[in-house]
Amino acid sequence: MLTSGRTVVLDGGLATELEARGHDLSDALWSARLLADDPEEIVAAHVAFYRAGAEVATTASYQASFPGFAARGIDRAEAAALLRRSVELARRARDAVAGDGRPRWVAASAGPYGALLSDGSEYRGRYGLTQRELVAFHRPRLEVLAEAEPDVLALETVPDVDEAAAELAALEALDMPGVPVWLSYTVADGRTRAGQSLEEAFAVAAGNAQVLAVGVNCCSPAEVADAVAIAAEVSGKPVIVYPNSGEGWDAEGRRWAGAPTFSPDEVNRWVDGGAALVGGCCRVRPGDIADLARALRVT
Q1: Strand 181-185 and strand 211-217: pairing?
Q2: 206 with 235: CB under 8 angstroms?
Q3: Helix, strand or coil for residue 134?
Q4: Spatial separation of the C-alpha atoms in residues 37 and 68, rounded to whole Å
Q5: Is 218 annotated as a binding residue?
Q6: Closest CA relative to residue 90, chosen from 48, 129, 122
Q7: What is the pTM for the complete model shown?
Q8: CA-CA 20 to 30 A from 117: which of 33, 130, 150, 186?
Q9: In what order do the strands lie in the sheet with 8-9?
C-alpha cells in the first residue's frame, strides 16, 4: 500500500528534468507535448527520479486534456491514447529499475483547469466556471487515466475548494471506487490560491474513502509545516507534501524567479508533523530528491 505507515518518497519536477535534458517546453501542452514527440525522454526522466530514491513517478499528464490536445489538432481517440501512454511510460520506468526489492508506484497526474489555460491560472483559481462545467472538464480525462490502472490518481495543484469538490464529484460520477486518489492544493499565505481557509479546503476530503491522502504541492516550502498540521487534523487522512523549489513563477515572463529555498533538512520536520508522503515539485531535481531520501534514512 502507498500509505502503509512509513514515509514514502515522491519524485520532483518532471518538466524541470525534461528541460534540463534540453527540451523546450514553452508549448501550451508543456511536458505533455513529449507524450507524442519524444516519449523515451519521459521514461528517462522518470528513471532518473526512481534511481535518485523516489518511490513514486508522477506521469506527464498534468497539462494533458482533451480540449488542450484538440487545440493542437489531436482528435479524441489519439488524445485518450496519449493519456494512457503517460501511465504506460511511468510503468516502463518502474520496470527499468526493478530488481532491488524496493516498492515503487505510479501516480497519474491530473492538473487543474487552469493548467489548460497555460497562463498561470492554477495559481489563482476562480475561473468563472460553474461546478457543472468543471466536472465536465475533469471527468473524461479522469476516466481515461483511471482505466489505465495507475496505482493512484494525483489531483494536484488545485487552487480552489470549488475545483477540488468538482474533481471529487467527477470521480463519484465515474463510479470507480477502487481507484485511490490524493488531493493536493497549491497554497500561499496559509490559504488556497483562491483565498479559502485550509480548514475548508481539507474538509472536502474528510470522510471520502477514495481519497488516501491530502496535502499541498507547488507551493513555497515555507508553507508546508503549517499545512501539514491542518491537513492531518481536519481530514483524518495521511498527509502528502511536495513543494516547489521556493522560486516564484512569473506567468507573464514565463520563467522562474527568486532564490530556491527547498531544503531536504526540512523533511524530517514535515514528517514529525504528520507528513506521510514527501517530495518536490517544480524546479526540484533528482539530486534534491536523493538528498531528501538520505535525510529520511538518517533519522
Answers
A1: parallel
A2: yes
A3: helix
A4: 15
A5: yes
A6: 48
A7: 0.94
A8: 150
A9: 8-9, 275-278, 239-242, 211-217, 181-185, 152-158, 105-110, 56-58
| SS3 (DSSP) at 265 | helix
Angle at CA of residue 298, ends 295 and 299, nearest 5°: 95
Burial of 117 from C-beta contacts in 10 A (0-12 / 13-18 / 19+): middle
**pLDDT level of residue 257 (50, 70, 90 thresholds):** confident
Cα 211 to chain centroid distance, Å, stands at 14
Identity (one letter) of the amino acid at 91? R
**Other CB atoms within 10 A of residue 102 CB:** 10
Phi, psi of 6 (to 5 degrees): -115, 160
Express each pLDDT in 6-39 by its tens digit. Answer: 899 999 999 999 999 888 778 778 788 899 889 9
Query: Taking the CA of residue 255 as centre, how many other CA atoms within 13 Å lie in the half-sphere pointing to its CB?
Result: 4
281 is in an annotated binding site: yes
pLDDT tens profile 155-196: 999 999 999 999 999 999 998 888 999 999 999 999 999 999
Q: What integer pLDDT is reported at residue 299 of this predicted model?
A: 45
> Given its phi and psi angles, is residue 128 left (phi above 0), alpha (psi -120 to 50 degrees) or beta?
left
pLDDT at 48 over 80: yes
Annotation-wise, does 219 bind a ligand? no
